[in-house]
Fold each of these.
Amino acid sequence: SECRRRRGYCVCNLLLLHNRLKFITCQDTSLGWTYHYSKDKLNWTEAREWCRKYYTDMLVIQNQEENDYVVSILPNQTKSPYYWIGITRNHINGTWTWIGNNSTWVGEHSWAPNEPNNNDITEFCVEIYVNSGANRGKWNDEKCGSKKFPVCYEAQCNATSCDRGRCQETIENTTCICEPGFKGDRCQTVVECDKDKITVPSNGSVECTHQYGNFSYNSSCQYSCEEGYRLSMSRPLTCTASTKWSDQPPTCKSVECPSLLQPDNGNYSCSGRNRTFNTTCRFDCHPGFLMIGSPAVTCGVTGVWSGPRPTCAKMTSLFFSGYKQALLAVAGCGALSTFCCICCCWMKRRKSQCYSITLHRKSDARQCYFNRPQ
Ligand SMILES: [Ca+2]
């Protein structure tokens, strides 16, 4: 049979499973969780097993709206209007916790008046009233061994629900919450950036790599410059989740060496105006000055001159500087000669002493044998 529900269009079917167990399923035609219940009463543990066998699990209520909705689609039970729901606690002081997601939501008006009262000391399971009375939709803690109608849910999200996102279930819908960089109802489409923004710079080139698709999220474009040119920004351009490139394209600027200072008492001139790569600057000294150092420097590919700037020294200061050095050299030679003379004299004197000693002492004669005259 078919019937209309307050929310959406529901199809109610009477099914026979294993030729034994009758149950009713009310399936919302829209996506999202569907709710199901048994016409047979079971204790809480059996009820959960039944839910897990035929559906996903026992009902987990996530908010008041869902609580009200589930009550609205369940048929009123006149004699025993109680359905098990998937919230329990382990001991008398335990926290009421939903199975499956471990949520502890209990709302502000969920419990019936004076509940939970743990009336039988071990009321660790929860039933929901589905009747036309004042307690409709309220909860009561109850002994888990009591028999009630199971109410279950069946999840619609599965591993393939969303390509690049997380499947989120609500009462009547499933939504794919997409990862950054993806869009579409199943997050199946990667976002793209404007490929025309990737321009090739003068004196340079660009190379792009693509992770998900051409000029799409996470595509990366690395720029490079010809020799003698330098990038205005070295990091690559990346396509972001907002469909914008991470930066403006860089440019290639000429490598430039630092300014050269004019040497004291000299000049220089360069082959180019801007001290760019391969520019050579030549130095001259004014008349009467002598250049010390290399007469030319060249701007290298890294923006560094090939050597230090030369200096221009006055001839006379060079002469005096040379004279002092010569004087020092002469004095050094004299000292060395004096030392050598002293050494020679001492050796000669020792030779003669040795010879005279051998005349008297035989043991010393062996040491001085080669010095003894024939
Ligand atoms: Ca109770």
Amino acid sequence: MSGRRGYALPAVEHACEPAWVAPNPVTAGPLRGEPVARAVFDGLPARYDRLAYLLSFGQDRRWRRAVANHATAGAPGLVLDVATGPAGVALAVAARTGADVVGVDLNEPMLRAGLPNVRRRSVRGRVRLAAGRADQLPFPDATFDAVTFSYLLRYVDDPAATIAEMVRCLRPGGTLASLEFAVPPQPAWRAAWWGYTRLLLPVLGGIAGGPAWYQVGRFLGPSISEHYRRYPLSSHVTAWQAAGLSAIGFDLMSLGGGLVMWGRKSPATGTAGQAVPGSGS
Ligand SMILES: C[S@@+](CC[C@H](N)C(=O)[O-])C[C@H]1O[C@@H](n2cnc3c(N)ncnc32)[C@H](O)[C@@H]1O
């Protein structure tokens, strides 16, 4: 045995150790939580926007625009976009209004991928990005006129608490608007969605984006299904109401593959109204 500290085993014994490969947090359970959120997006930032567009058949931009439309309906002056990634929704909001927008995300590399976009002349100086966690936002109560988030709730340990934290930062009368993937409710479309997410998505992801996107392709479908098994749509609505939102509405987009929700912060909690499904599109 070597006398040097830190070398307890001779080389030959190391060679006899069975090879151990760390489980891949993207495809080995659990499917949610901060370590998963960090691991999933580790290799994605460089091509995130382009591949998200391709793999959703161009739907995700349309869905983000719908969120931005709801968030800007009240002509907000200051907007917070949580889980902003490369700032897609933040930019869509800024493009529609003269609002200042703050984008917050857990992953610094995702934020860095958005920097060239937020420096574009049309929005320069109006979109600022900061590292931060959705469940512990670094802002005082009632700071923002509108708050948006997209593709976030599958990653957090406690979706209801995270919604409450975002509503805390919203001024009374302000709008919360969100986008999440969803499971199509109609059986034939659900079967097609299942086939796409379980079989085609990993393959297309791997071809277009390499190993990191193959892993994400494998992760995405089970993560969406698991999320709605634990938190059906009705529980999302309940969480929004419990957080003090009223005039809650939602649209199932593109045959149910996307869920856009919106609501208004009540002047006082406890006055939440019923959720109204929109027309869908
Ligand atoms: C699929 S991306 C969506 C990015 C962007 N919203 C969009 O529409 O393209 C999900 C983002 O959520 C972020 N995220 C996950 N959990 C988070 C948390 N607890 N707090 C803040 N950001 C989080 C990830 O870092 C990632 O950038």
